[in-house]
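Write out the 3D structure for:
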Amino acid sequence: MNPPEYLSLGKTKEERLENYRALLKVPVSTELLNDIRESVNKGLALGDDRFKAEIETLMNKRVTPRKAGRPQKKTDSAN
């Protein structure tokens, strides 16, 4: 069974194949490829801030990097 996204590429099988092949001919920039690799390796979402927030809400899991460094120590104001 073909997904609707594939079927939307054309009315005939030949047209869909031709359009699918054309999609694969578009070069991916080195920067985007590095961003994809980093996101996959770290288990993070790749997209704009709105998309990332939606994914975090849906998954109830952090998909954005944490701030670099150690967490700040809490100071005791009673001293």
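The mean pLDDT is 88.
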